[in-house]
């Protein structure tokens, strides 16, 4: 939002709440001349906002008493859509921050109470990545280099310096698209694996993230070269996970109420752990070598107990 556009909106908001304000008061608040304020009044009038000035001791700048913004600019549906979108953004700031303030102001401007039909919580049950999220948000908007410790999927611990480009929410998790100064390439970092984040004072020139698609720092790109077809028999006790984690097209209901599911996953430690997380409620039907690997791992687990 440009400086003048932002000031015009603020003037409307002030007048809706204070009812009347002098040009001098507004000029002091925005750090501009009274002549600029009068030009703003003319701009608002041309745009159809019923703002007018009165001379005299009790005079000033005001709006028509029955004015609400929706009669001049936005339809009823557009207002609700804007407030709903801002409410969704405010959840990323825990109700605070710029979006929360804008939501509060627009609710007053539209003369509406924000509906509580939507509740969003992007945080994990056990890990709150809000600090990292807001740190990367600042780094992206201000184009500042970020430094952090990263724990890769292979257990590798590295210290990274990156040029953050974009925050991305993908299937239950936040990721950062960034140009990694160590790898000299675009990378995708999972936010929950970031520690000791520092937003430095070093600035950078924005790169084209479209021309440089990021490689997944969790090495999923390499793993995808070894995709296997898995068939698992899932007991009824784990049906909720079938609904959550598998394609419905690849699931067949069984007489006992469970499912046989087909999935195409990369073969690595992640997939072994995924299968083992079902405990005794999952059986690998194929491929045979995965069945043997899970059997060996289960035996080693049993030896520990």
Description of the structure:
By secondary structure, the protein is of the alpha+beta class. The chain has helices at 3-18, 23-30, 34-46, 76-92, 97-110, 130-142, 220-223, 239-245, 269-276, 288-304, and strands at 20-21, 51-54, 60-63, 144-151, 157-170, 173-180, 185-190, 194-203, 215-216, 227-234, 251-253, 259-266, 282-286. Strands 8-4-5-6-7-9 form a 6-stranded mixed beta sheet. Strands 11-12-10-13 form a 4-stranded antiparallel beta sheet, with helices on one face. Strand 5 and strand 6 (173-180) form a beta hairpin. Helix 1 crosses helix 5, helix 2 (23-30) packs across helix 3 and helix 4 runs antiparallel to helix 5. The longest helix has 17 residues, at 76-92. The radius of gyration is 28 Å and the shape is elongated. It starts with a helix and ends with a helix.
List the helices and strands and how they pair.
Layout lengths: L2 H16 L1 E2 L1 H8 L3 H13 L4 E4 L5 E4 L12 H17 L4 H14 L19 H13 L1 E8 L5 E14 L2 E8 L4 E6 L3 E10 L11 E2 L3 H4 L3 E8 L4 H7 L5 E3 L5 E8 L2 H8 L5 E5 L1 H17 L1
Parallel strand pairs: 7-9
Antiparallel strand pairs: 1-3, 2-3, 4-5, 4-8, 5-6, 6-7, 10-12, 10-13, 11-12
Helix pairs in contact: 1-5, 2-3, 4-5
């Amino acid at each position: 939002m440009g400086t003048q556009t932002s000031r015009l909106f603020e003037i409307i908001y002030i007048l809706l709440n204070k009812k009347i304000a002098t040009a001098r008061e507004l000029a002091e608040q925005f750090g501009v001349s009274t002549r600029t304020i009068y030009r703003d009044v003319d701009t608002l009038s041309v745009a159809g906002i019923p703002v007018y000035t009165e001379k005299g001791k009790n005079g000033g700048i005001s709006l028509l008493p029955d004015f609400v913004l929706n009669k001049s600019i936005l339809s009823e549906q557009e207002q609700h859509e804007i407030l709903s979108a801002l409410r969704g953004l405010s959840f990323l700031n825990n109700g605070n921050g710029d979006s929360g303030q804008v939501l509060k102001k627009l609710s007053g401007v539209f003369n509406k109470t924000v509906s509580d039909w939507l509740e969003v919580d992007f945080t994990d049950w056990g890990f709150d990545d809000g600090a990292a999220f807001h740190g990367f948000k600042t780094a992206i908007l201000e184009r500042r280099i970020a430094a952090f410790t990263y724990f890769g999927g292979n257990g590798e611990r590295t210290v990274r310096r990156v040029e953050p480009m974009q925050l991305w929410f993908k299937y239950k998790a936040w990721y950062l698209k960034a140009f990694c100064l160590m790898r000299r390439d675009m990378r995708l970092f999972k936010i929950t694996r970031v520690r000791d984040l520092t937003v430095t004072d070093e600035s950078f020139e924005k790169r084209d993230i479209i021309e440089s698609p990021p490689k997944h720092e969790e090495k999923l790109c390499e793993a995808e070269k070894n995709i296997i077809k898995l068939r698992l028999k899932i007991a009824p006790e784990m049906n909720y996970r079938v609904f959550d984690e598998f394609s419905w097209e690849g699931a067949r209901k069984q007489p006992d109420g469970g499912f046989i599911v087909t999935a195409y996953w990369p073969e690595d430690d992640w997939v072994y752990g995924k299968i083992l997380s079902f405990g005794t409620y999952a059986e690998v039907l194929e491929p045979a070598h995965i069945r043997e690997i899970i059997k060996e791992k289960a035996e080693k687990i049993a030896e520990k107990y």
